[in-house]
Structures are given as C-alpha cells and as structure tokens.
Design brief:
The structure holds two protein chains of two kinds. In chain A, 18% of the residues lie in helices and 26% in strands. Chain A contains five helices and 13 strands. Chain A has a twelve-stranded mixed beta sheet, sandwiched between helices. Chain A is globular, with a radius of gyration of 20 Å. By secondary structure, chain B is an alpha/beta fold. Chain B is built from 16 helices and 23 strands. Chain B is 30% helix and 17% strand. Chain B folds into two domains: 87 residues, Alpha-Beta Plaits, CATH 3.30.70; 365 residues, TIM Barrel. Classes of the chains: A alpha/beta, B alpha/beta. Chains A and B meet through α1, α3 and β13 of A and α3, β5, α6 and α8 of B. β13 of chain A pairs parallel with β5 of chain B, so a sheet runs across the interface.
Chain lengths: 281, 504
C-alpha cells in the first residue's frame, strides 16, 4: 500500500519544472509579470515569483490565488535593492510575506494566518480580513488590514534602530492582541463595531514591554493585560496616529476625519522589564 | 544579600605563601578578596564566593585553596543543604531560584553503563594511523532509494537529492547565543568550527552582520520563539537552519535575557533596542501543532530557496519518539534532541533538575521508532546534552545519532569550571558575561586553538575506537547497537536502549 508520507508529498510532489510553468502560467509584459495561479502548488507559485523578480520586473500580478502559502517569501535578493510590488487577486494562504524583505504586497481578498510573520521590511495591504498571528515578531515595514483580524495579532513585534513596524487593523481583533509587544505601533480602529460594543480581544498587551497600541472604541479594564497602562494621547501621539490613519484611508478609500473623530486611548507598558523581579539570584 | 545563608565555600589562604600581590582581588568579579593596606593583609569574604577557582589557579604562589563547605547543618539525606538554602532564599524573596549550566543531580548516566566492542582474532582491528578512517558525516535528508543510470560519459544519479551538509567529523558545537556567552567565546566557537570545517550553532541570539560572510558557511542558525536577529539575510547565510522548540536544560519554558545584558553589540545582533529585556516566549506563537511546525519548516525552506536543511531541536521529554516522528513527517531534515543534562545560561533550578529525560534513552527511543516507521533515512539525528568525552560521542553514534553537539565540554575547554553562576553575568572566566573588563580575559585566538585541539583529540580517539572495532567508517557504526553492551542495567533499560547485557 502506498502511504503518502506526511506533508512533504502534499506540498512538493509532482512539482513541475519552472521553465515549463514560465511558459504556461506566466507572461511578462514590460515591467509587469502576470501569473495564473489556478492549480499551482505553493512552491510553483513562488518559483514563478522568484523567476519574475530575477527577470527584472517591478510588478507581479498573481491571479486566482487560492490558499498558496508563503507568497513573497522567496524574494530574498542578496545584492539587489530591487523591490517588487505583488498584487494578489483572491485568497493567499498562510504565512503571506513571512520574512518579507522590502517588497510590497497588495491582497484583493482575505488573508489567512501568519500575515507578515517575522517581516523585516516592506508593506502588506489586505483589502479584507486576516487570520491569526498577524505581524508576529514583525521588525519593520507596515501592514494594513481593512477589516478584522484573528487571535494573537502583533505578538512580539519589535522595533530596532530605524525600523519601526506599524500594524493598522481597521476592525477589531481576537484575544492576545499585542502579547509580548516589544516595540512598534499597533493601531486598531474598531470600524464595524456597533456603538458601545467592546473590542473582542481579551488579554490585550499581556507581557508587553515596549511599543504602543492605539485603540479606537471601547475596551473594559478586564480586557487588558496586567502589564499595560492606559494613557491619553498627547500631541505627538496624534501626529503618529494621523499619519497612519490617513495612509489607511488612502489604501481603502475611507474618510480620515470620521475615524479620527472617534475616542482613542493609548496603551503603554508599565515596565520595560515585566518579569525582572520574579527571580531569586 | 540573603539572610541566614551559610557560605557555600571555604577559602583557605596560606599566610606564609601569600605575597599580597592582589591578583585574587583583581580577578574576582564577586569581590570576595580585599586588601587592607594598613595591616598589609588580604581578607576574603566567603559568602560571595561561587567556587569558580579563578583566584586559585592564578595565584602565583598557590596560596589559595577554595573548597565546598558541605556539612554545616545536621546531615540529612532528605533535607539537603541545597534545599534548605533555597528555601531560605525563597522565603526572603518569593522568587524563582535561578541557576546556570546543566542538571547536576545524581541521575543515572547511561553512557557509564554502556561499553564498546573491539575486534579479537575473528576480524582484524584497524590501525587508524596507517589506514584511512572515515569520520565524514552528512547531515540532512537522504532519499528512500537511489536510481542510477548509465549515460555516455559514465553514470548519472536520477534520484532527486536533498540539501546535505558534509562535515569532516560528527562533532558540532552546541547552540550558545551571543548574549548568553560573550563575544570572544562566541567568536572562538565560530572560528574553531571554521578551522575544523565543522559547524557551530548561533543559538537564538542572531549572528552579527560582520560575521555572516566569514562564518556563515559554518553556522547553524536558530529561529526561536523570540525571532531575535532573524531576517532573510541571516537565514540565507547559514548552512543549516534550526527551529528551536525546546532546550534540554529547561524543557517547556522560554528565556529572559535581562535588559542590562543587552548592550550595543547584542542589541544589534538581536535587532532589539539597547537595554530592553529579550523575552523568548515558551512556545513559538505560530506553532501550536505539528501542522504549524510543518508550516514554519517550509517557510524557512522557502526563505532559503530550498537550499538548506532545516533542523528542529526539541528537549528530550516523555513522548520524544512520537514527537520526533511528527517532526520528520512535518518535513524536518534534521531532528536535534537535547537531553536533560544539557547546559543553559539561565534556568529555574527546579526545571533544570526535574524536567526531561536522559538523552541516552531519548535517542535510543527516537532512532528505534523512526526505523520501525521506515522514515529514519528522511532525517539526520543530532544529539546534545551532557556529552563529556569522545566515548560518550561514539556511544551516541552507536545508539543512532548522526551528529553530536558539544556544548559544556567546549566551554570547559575555554576555561569554564561549572560554578553554575552563568546567569549572574559575572563570569570570572569571561565566558558568560558581557562586562567589558571580564570578557578581555578570553583571547579568541587562544581559545579557538583550544577548541580545535579538543575536537581533534576527540576525533582521533573516535578513530582509535572505531579501528579497534574493526570498522573503517563512522557510517558503519551509526545505529549499530551490536557494538554496545550494557552493564548494571535493568531489563527495561536494556530494552529501551536496544542493547544486550554484557556477556550476552
């Protein structure tokens, strides 16, 4: 009996040669490559993306994406500043743009789990919702999600030198949003929530020791982690907020004034060392 | 700092030998020794002494003798001194007792109950000084079968090959991060690995950018829950990418590198701001299942263009065989198992001493299980945690390991004396500290040479033992338990190890 071996076969068996796929599923028109992803495996899609990037195009359009994973990940280019814009039509799979290094991804549809996981630089714009672990351990770049996101968004995001990761969530998030947050800016706009309806997330910012979360809309104190302090926004906060909200509105054709009129709070860590005193040395 | 604590060590100073040169005073980061100019005398405050023996070996007149103070309380096999002292510390602070290094409790060490075979009469032993003896090891997935066809100019291998990394000896340096150990210590491991052509493991603290081009070709880079210093460049400059799920010294828990250790260089390497705590959460928050693990394995393969083997490192725990099977099925090319005697820069003592299982049993169980399932060839097995000498290493290979991680032994080669105070950041030997004054005590050129010497000595010993068995390639010993016998073991232990008793 032929037993399929684990996941490897599901992912990688019968991968067609890139040369063949290039002629069958991709055409390059000037600086734009168009990939037809219907029935392609994730490796095949990413093989084509890499091939397109190496051929020098600046735009890649991928049509009929249906669950293919890791789009944008294989575009590491050691000696090039060459960055591409990838437009994904329909629904990319998990780990969209994991380890993304400066490219721009636009999704015309919903995204799944792990959007921008450990992303280093670049931009991801999702015209829809996103699943769990959005922006986990993200170090730089920007992610805009038009609607809601799932559990564990912005876990362990961190900033570094000139890198300041920004995550803007149009709707609301599920539990553990901003857990272990170590840096960066998380903005959650609460669009789509009813009046006086609370944000969905509990344990917001548990273990937070850096960065800042701006929340528009209501949260009860019990929804916040122990390591989080609630503050009013100062002028500098408003500047930061305005910049990113305007950008959000440009991406999704919304009205910034309407959004900025809402009530915002700012969440900060109460300590840079939340677990500094649990040990006996 | 703590009340009701007895000093752990007694310091004897031979007055007739001490020349008041004050070397001991300058060498001790714990400020144990002091000089009174008025009396022209050295004094020692024993309560801060950690027993690292730095002052003893550097005293030019051998005037010092530092020895454990063991029996002050009424002797009690149950309420040992250790337990009582910890209780007092906790009563005062309410804190978790920290420790460093590996499990020091007297659990059975199976290496010491396994003996190797040698050839006598019926097949000749081989002299490695005169005959070739192959220790070369390939790490990575091997194909189920190899199809070779004849073509015009010889033969052609048709079977798809997987990325493998060749190392000239099965010995590899263990994961120790820059942050847990000092830069000279870290650099020494990298440089020694390069000189030997083997590998070192960056741990989860990243690989400094200026070291990537030079040492990337000898690096196993880790991607752990904190994702410190992980970017596409880091992944692509490595030989092997390792997902760290667990560590033998502290299975199931994460790590906290305190902010005061995150100085400029470490901040750059970990890619976090200076002075912030580097918190590694206990789980990776994108891995809650074997399916998720598979997702990260393939993400790493995607990020490195399918050019590098991906390893998954787990702590040896109760169901390690089933977990390892899942890891291989998830697509890992290497399974690394870290036994409960593995070292650490900092761990709660209760976890270090009570969680996990011995490497020997875990390794035997994993190797057996993967063979039974017919998937042993799909991965290499690396083992870590308490490999003290070349005999431990060769026994591990006979139990089924492909490669052996050497951690604590390498630190000892650099100067470590296992005082277990790595977490204090005051390592007098300049190894587990970031204090600019202390790290100067390690000269990377000298320590590199010491590490190279150690590995060469072990490799040679392995060759001698192999030759004695009449084997001329380490591949022939891999998983070959016929060359092992147990002594003083119970049936269940022999059964788990898959070896016969001596004389059988």
């Amino acid at each position: 009996m032929q037993i399929k071996f684990g996941y490897r076969d599901n992912f990688l068996c019968e991968i067609r040669p890139t040369g063949l796929l290039c002629s069958e599923c991709m055409y390059i028109d000037g600086s734009t490559a168009v990939i037809e992803a219907r029935d392609l495996k994730h490796k095949e899609v990413n093989d084509l993306c890499r091939e397109a990037m190496l051929s020098g195009v600046s735009k890649i359009i991928i049509n009929n994406v249906f669950g293919q994973r890791y789009i944008g990940t294989r575009l590491y280019n050691p000696d090039g500043q060459h960055k591409v814009t990838i437009t994904i039509n329909k629904f990319p799979g998990n780990d969209l743009g994991i380890f993304l290094d400066g490219h721009r991804i636009i999704v015309n549809g919903n995204a799944q789990d792990g959007v921008g996981n450990t992303m280093n630089e670049g931009e991801i714009i999702v015209h829809g919702r996103a699943g769990d672990v959005v922006a986990m351990a993200m170090r730089g770049g920007k992610i805009f999600v038009r609607d809601n996101v799932g559990y564990r968004a912005a876990i362990h995001m961190k900033e570094y030198r000139d890198k300041l990761p920004v995550l803007v969530i149009g709707g609301t998030a599920q539990d553990f949003m901003g857990e272990y947050l170590a840096g960066g800016v998380v903005i959650m706009l609460g669009l789509g929530l009813k009046e006086n309806e609370n944000h969905r997330a509990n344990y917001i910012g548990t273990g937070m020791h850096g960065g800042v979360i701006y929340l528009r809309g209501h949260v009860e104190p019990h929804q916040l982690g122990k390591e989080v302090g609630v503050r009013e926004l100062d002028d500098l906060d408003w500047q930061v907020l305005q910049t990113h909200v305007h950008e959000y509105c440009r991406h999704f054709s919304k009205e910034p004034a309407e959004i900025l009129n809402g009530k915002f709070i700012k969440l900060l860590p109460v300590s840079r060392r939340p677990y500094g005193n649990i040990y006996a040395y | 700092m703590y009340s009701f604590q007895l000093p752990e060590f007694i310091i004897d100073r031979a007055a007739d030998r001490c020349i008041r040169c004050r070397v001991c005073e300058r060498q001790c980061a714990n400020k144990v020794h002091s000089y009174d100019a008025e009396l022209d005398r050295m004094f020692s405050g024993e309560k801060d002494c950690v027993g690292c023996q730095r002052c003893v070996v550097l005293c030019p007149t051998l005037a010092l003798n530092v020895r454990p103070r063991t029996s002050d309380y009424r002797p009690n096999a149950s309420w040992t001194r250790d337990k009582m002292q910890n209780l007092k510390k906790q009563a005062q602070t309410g804190g978790v007792i920290l420790t460093g290094s590996g499990n020091d409790k007297p659990y059975r060490i199976y290496w010491d109950h396994l003996v190797l075979n040698a050839s006598q009469v019926t097949n000749p032993s081989i002299d490695p000084l005169r005959e070739p003896m192959e220790l070369k090891t390939y790490l990575g997935r091997k194909p189920d079968s190899v199809k070779i066809t004849r073509c015009a100019d010889g033969f052609e291998v048709e079977t798809e090959s997987f990325p493998n990394v060749a190392i000239p000896t099965p010995l590899v340096f263990s994961a120790m991060s820059y942050g847990a150990i000092s830069y000279p210590a870290y650099l020494s491991l990298a440089a020694a690995a390069k000189e030997l052509g083997t590998l070192f493991n960056t741990g989860e603290g990243g690989l400094p950018e200026h070291m990537r081009r030079e040492y990337g070709g000898n690096a196993i880079v880790q991607c752990a829950s904190g994702r410190f210093g992980v970017d596409a460049d880091y992944l692509n400059n490595a030989q092997i990418i390792e997902i760290k799920i667990g560590q033998g010294a502290k299975p199931g828990i994460g790590g906290h590198l305190p902010g005061e250790k995150v100085l400029a260089n470490i901040s750059e390497t970990r890619m976090i701001p200076i002075g912030t705590d580097a918190l590694s959460p206990a789980p990776q928050h994108d891995i809650y299942s074997i399916e998720d693990l598979s997702m990260l394995i393939y993400a790493l393969k995607e990020a490195s263009n399918y050019e590098k083997p991906v390893s998954v490192k787990i702590a040896a725990v109760h169901n390690v065989a089933a977990i390892a099977s899942g890891i291989v099925r998830a697509g890992a090319d290497i399974v690394a198992i870290d036994g409960f005697r593995g070292g650490t820069g900092a761990a709660p003592q209760t976890t270090r001493d009570n969680v996990g299982i011995p490497l020997e049993l875990a390794l035997a169980a994993v190797d057996k299980r993967l063979r039974e399932e017919g998937i042993r060839n799909k991965c290499s097995i690396m083992v870590a945690g308490g490999i003290r000498c070349s005999a431990d290493a060769i026994k591990a290979i006979a139990l089924g390991a492909d490669g052996v991680y050497v951690g604590t032994a390498a630190l000892i080669a650099m100067g470590c004396t296992l005082c277990q105070k790595c977490y204090t950041g005051k390592c007098n030997w300049g190894i587990t500290t970031q204090d600019p004054f202390l790290i100067k005590r390690l000269n990377p050129e000298l320590t590199t040479q010491r590490l190279v010497n150690l590995m060469q000595a072990w490799s040679h010993e392995i060759q001698e033992m192999l030759g004695g068995m009449g084997i001329n390639a380490i591949e022939s010993l891999r998983g070959n338990r016929d060359h092992l016998r147990g002594i003083g073991l119970e049936d269940w232990e022999l059964n788990v190890l898959g070896v016969k008793g001596a004389g059988e």
